[in-house]
Amino acid sequence: MPGDPQHGLEPPPSGPTRRRLVISTALIPALAGATQLTARPAAAAADRNDRPLVLPLPTTQNDWRGVTRTLGRQGEVLAGTVYRVAFLRRDLRVVSKGVTITPDLAVGSYISFIRYADGSTLMMGDMAVLETELQHVTDTLHAHGIGQTALHKHLLTQKPAIWWTHVHGHGHDAVALARGLRAALDRTGTPHTEPPATKAHRLDLDTAGIDAALHTKGTQDGRIYKVIFARRERITDGSRVLPRGTGSMTALIFQPVGHGRAAINGDFVLVASEVQRVIAALRCGGIDIVSLHSHGLTDSPRLFYIHFWAVDDAVKLARALHKAVSTTNVSPPPA
C-alpha cells in the first residue's frame, strides 16, 4: 500500500513541506519558460551583431530629383552621402524667456535621406510642430508607414508651445518616403517655399573669440553662428552605418541678442558615461538643461542628447561649452 513502511515507501509530506513541493513543482514550467525568454533576446542580439553592415552610397543632387519635386524644396548633399532638407518655421514668432527666437536657432524641421548599398533609402530627422498640430502629424506619419522615435522640446518657456518629433522611415522608394513626409508637413503651417536668399547679415558677435574658446572654427548660417563637433565612433542604426550629419553631431548655436551677448541653444550627443559630466559642466557654466533624451531606437552605441539654453556674453558661454565638449569623444568635422 502507498505509505506502508513494509513496502519501503514513506508517507507523502503534509503541511508546509508539501505546499513548498507543490509550489516548486508548479514553478518549473514557468521558470523554464523564463529561461527561454531571456535566452531569445541574447540570441537575437547575436544574430544582429553577425549581420554584415550596410554602407551608405555617395550621391549627388541629381539622385534626389524625385524627392526634391515631391517636397517642393531643394536640399543639399552633405559629405557626399546625406541629402538634407530644411523646413524653417518662418510662419511662427516664437519667444522663449523674453528672447524672440530666429528660426535658424531652434525652430525648424531637418530631414536627411541616405541611400544604401542594398538599394534602400533611410529617411530620418526631426520636425518642429505646434502642440495643436502634433496629433494630426503623428496620425499622418503612421498612415504613410513612417515611424516616430522621439518626442521632446528644444526650449523651456516658449510661446507658442512647440514640440520636436523625430521621424524614421526606410524603404526602396525614396519618393514614397518623401510623399509621406510632405503629407505630414501639410498638416502644419510650415511654409512650402523658402523666401529668396538675402545677403549675409553681420552678426553682433565676437566670432573669433567664440572660435578661440571652442578651439575650432564655426560658420555663419543666416542669423546665427554655429559650431559643430562629430562623434569619433562609428554609429549604426540596426545594420546600417550612419554617415556624419545624421544625428551624431554636437551642435552649439549662438543667436546674437545685442552688445556681444548671445542666446545659445543646440544639443550635445553623448554616450551614457558622458551624460552626468556634461550636465555638471553646463550647470557650472550657468547654462540651463532643457531636455535629456534619445533620438533613435536602434542606434549603436546608444546615444543620448542634451539640449541647453543660456543668455550671456557669447565668448563666456563658449568657454563654458568647451568645458562640456572636452568631456566627450568628439572632434571637429573635416572642413
Would you kindly provide a written description of the structure presented here, covering whatever features stand out?
- By secondary structure, the protein is an alpha+beta fold.
- The protein is built from eight helices and 18 strands.
- Helix 2 (65-71) runs parallel beside helix 5.
- The model is unreliable at 1-48 (pLDDT under 50).
Topology:
Elements: H1 15-50, H2 65-71, E1 76-78, E2 82-88, E3 94-96, E4 99-101, H3 103-106, E5 108-115, E6 121-130, H4 134-143, E7 147-152, E8 162-171, H5 174-185, H6 207-214, E9 219-221, E10 224-231, E11 236-237, E12 240-241, E13 249-258, E14 261-270, H7 275-284, E15 288-293, E16 299-300, E17 304-313, H8 314-325, E18 330-331
Antiparallel strand pairs: 1-2, 2-5, 3-4, 5-6, 6-8, 7-8, 9-10, 10-13, 10-18, 11-12, 11-16, 13-14, 14-17, 15-17
Helix pairs in contact: 2-5, 4-5, 6-8, 7-8
Question: How do you describe this structure in short?
Answer:
This protein is 30% helix and 31% strand. It is an alpha+beta fold and 335 residues long.
Which structural traits does this protein have?
disordered N terminus; 335 residues; alpha+beta; six-stranded antiparallel beta sheet; 30% helix; 31% strand
Radius of gyration: 26 Å
**Which structural class best describes the helix and strand composition?**
alpha+beta
Number of strands: 18
Succession of helices and strands? HHEEEEHEEHEEHHEEEEEEHEEEHE
Q: Quote the beta fraction.
A: 25-35%
Q: Describe the largest sheet.
A: 7 strands, antiparallel
How many H/I helices? Answer: 8
Overall body shape: globular
Helix content: 25-40%
Could you tell me the mean pLDDT? 86
What is the straight-line distance between the termini? 91 Å
Taking pLDDT < 50 over at least 5 consecutive residues as the criterion, the unreliable ranges are 1-48
